Amino acid sequence: MNELIDLTKLQSWIQSKWRASLGIIVALVLGILIGILSVEWRVIDDCKYLKSFRFGNMAFNCVRTI
């Protein structure tokens, strides 16, 4: 039965794939975070100076509510 299910081979295969793809995963997460922050900063800057911001072809007014 041990010959049919060799977990050490499966574990080594998973570890090799994880090591190979770790850089891609880190780069993807960093890219998403930088994209989110740049959009946020762009909206904040537009609201500061222009009092409105745009997403695609729609414009929104910046109104402060409490």
Question: Sheet with the most strands?
Answer: 2 strands, antiparallel
Number of helices: 1
**Spans with pLDDT under 50 lasting ≥5 residues?**
none
Q: What is the end-to-end distance?
A: 67 Å
Indicate the radius of gyration in whole angstroms: 24 Å
Strand-residue proportion? 5-15%
Mean pLDDT value:
85
Strand order of the largest sheet: 1-2
Secondary-structure element string: HEE
- Please give the share of residues in helix: 55-70%
Judging from the principal axes of the Cα atoms, what is the shape?
rod-shaped
Secondary-structure content class: alpha+beta
Describe this entry's structure for a reader.
By secondary structure, the chain is α+β, with helices and mostly antiparallel strands. The chain contains one helix and two strands, in the order H-E-E. It has a domain at 24-66. It has one helix spanning 7-49; strands at residues 52-55, 58-61. The chain has a two-stranded antiparallel sheet with strand order 1-2. The model has no long low-confidence stretch (mean pLDDT 85).
Can you summarize this structure?
The protein is of the alpha+beta class and 66 residues long. The protein has one helix at 7-49; strands spanning 52-55, 58-61. Helix content is 65%, strand content 12%.
